[in-house]
Automatic annotation (TrEMBL):
This is Transmembrane protein. It comes from Dendrobium thyrsiflorum (Pinecone-like raceme dendrobium). Keywords: Signal. It holds the Pfam family DUF538. InterPro entries: At5g01610-like (IPR036758), DUF538 (IPR007493). It comes from the Eukaryota. Gene3D superfamilies: At5g01610-like (2.30.240.10).
């Protein structure tokens, strides 16, 4: 007797498991949908999210396809998002942020916290903050293009 007929149930089982795993993966909410579940507008993340990971304690990692810059409030502040953004999230609060910065005059400062309160978002840079209406973040901004790193590393 051939082994081939016995392998049919095993192959069928493997195909069913693969199909189930793929259907679960496709039902996972996007990073933008997860932001909305925590009380944030989807537009605080630019277009181009490749993947994200959210763990039980609220820690997260978002991977973008490239570094990204865009303006908030028309000709206002210039925001920069790195390819990798990390932090912790809970309802109405993004804290311990890394990978997001704002240009003030000629200097870039890291945004370490974003708080959602009423109809406004408060972006914190150390002890300072600026507020913007959530309506400014209804749509995901398009990046101005990937930036070229200006960081210089010298080997001694």
């Amino acid at each position: 007797m051939s082994l081939l007929p016995r392998t049919y149930p095993v192959i069928l089982l493997l195909l069913l498991i693969l199909h189930f795993a793929l259907s679960l993966a496709s039902d996972s909410p996007s990073a933008y949908e997860m932001l909305e579940r925590f009380g944030f507008p989807k537009g605080i993340l630019p277009e181009g999210v490749r993947s994200y990971n959210l763990v039980h304690d609220g820690g997260f990692e978002v991977l973008l396809s490239c570094d990204c810059e865009f303006r908030v409030d028309g000709d206002g502040f210039l925001l920069r998002y790195g390819k990798r953004i990390t932090g912790k999230v809970k309802s109405g609060q993004l804290k311990e942020l890394n990978g997001v910065s704002v240009k003030v005059l000629l200097v870039w400062f890291g945004i370490n916290e974003v708080v959602s309160s009423g109809t406004d978002l408060y972006f914190h840079v150390g002890p300072l903050s600026a507020s913007f209406p959530m309506s400014d973040f209804k749509e995901c901004p398009k990046c101005r293009g990937s930036r070229i790193s200006t960081d210089i590393v010298l080997d001694s």
